Amino acid sequence: MLDIRGLTVGYGAQTAVRELSLAAADTEVLGVIGPSGCGKSTLLRAVAGLQRPRSGQVLIDDRDVTGLRPDQRRIGLMFQEHALFPHRNVADNVAFGLRMQRLPRTEIAERVGEALDVVDLAGLERRSVTELSGGERQRVALARTIAPRPRLLMLDEPLGSLDRALQDRLLQDLPSLFAALGTTVVYVTHDQHEALTLADRVAVMREGRLVRVGAPHQVWRDPRTTFVATFLGLRHIVTARVRGRVVETPWGVLPAPPAPDGGEAVDGEHPLTILPSALRLATDTDPCRDGEHAVTADVQGLRFAGDHLVIDAQPSGAPPLKVAVRHDEPPRTGDRVTVAIAADGVRLLTEDR
Q1: Which helix (H) or strand (E) element contains residue 321?
Q2: Residue 78 lies in a domain
Q3: Are residues 81 and 209 in the same domain?
Q4: In a domain? residue 242
Q5: Are residues 23 and 126 in the same domain?
Q6: Average pLDDT, whole number, for the chain?
Q7: 81, exposed or middle or buried, with CB in 10 Å at 0-12, 13-18, 19+?
Q8: Element (H or E) spanning 17, and its range?
């Protein structure tokens, strides 16, 4: 449905997006993530027609729209700043774009009602936007974006200004909303948790380029580069040495995992990470299993993490291991524990270039 081909976009002497190619299928939710300044918002502006690219093409439904004005592309674009009109009520804010299209009043009223129903704000048409909560204002902005029935919906950091509790609530609501819209969605954020929760596929950007594209579980379980692993919040990134069928890590010798490209790992030094799910505490009643490597460590601290605790386990002569444990009967600071490392959760990485 969306096909970006070799897009390069810049401002003066600065190049913000470099020869980027990316496609999104019909009704797919595509999450574009990366640190601030990596070119995410510039990419959206170029697709929407707000920024002219230096080279490359943007195609929507196989139609080249690169030279078209924003209003000719059937795109809905919502930025973090909702930019609602404070002197207008909810219905008038949602109807603004429809009036710009000079649609009949009856059709405008029908579409406003439809959009507010989708975002669960039916009945608030006459409410002043200044009387709404932050989450309700965010929903009004979203309703205004979807009311013109865009073929492509693009959201730029839509939850960035909301508190964490409201973000979590909307993260639960947005998937069903996207499904009800039946449109393609490009969701841009620097918050990897948002993208991994909402997207069908995730595209990671760095310095104007794509460095990893895949389903959320694929990108999380196979980051491939130190940059992607670090950006996703994976810890335990160290330098290890592959020797034949084993890899020598600071925590001991483990079976050598495949190379990031899926082939056999080459002897020599490589960056390496351990997935959080590969770490657990072994106990007398649940000792290390086949495929796990035991590491003795001292507990140096515990941290609350919602439905679980994270302990800092310090092995002798090796970097600490952060292990998730249940709230019931957690170890105490100073306890000696056994950390089990599952070999199938070890990943070799490539250095970023």
Answers
A1: strand 321-325
A2: yes
A3: yes
A4: no
A5: yes
A6: 92
A7: exposed
A8: strand 14-24
Q: What is the spatial distance between Cα 38 and Cα 349, in angstroms, rounded to a whole number?
A: 21
Q: Is 15 exposed, middle or buried (0-12, 13-18, 19+ CB in 10 A)?
A: middle
Instruction: Tell me which residue has tokens 């895949």.
Output: 214
Same domain, 201 and 282: no
Work out the number of other CB atoms within 10 angstroms of the CB of residue 248: 15
**252-286 per-residue burial string, b: 16 or more CB within 10 A, e: under 16:** eebebbebbeeeebeeeebbbbbbbebbbbbeeee
Cα–Cα nearest to 7, from 154, 187, 210, 159 = 210
pTM over 0.70: yes
Kindly report, residue by residue over 204-251, the tens digit of the pLDDT.
999 999 999 999 999 999 999 999 999 999 989 999 999 999 999 999
CA distances from 353 to 192, 206, 209 (A): 22, 11, 11
Contacts of 215 (CB under 8 A, 6+ apart): 200, 201, 202
pLDDT per residue as tens digits for the range 281-311: 999 899 999 999 999 999 999 999 888 999 9
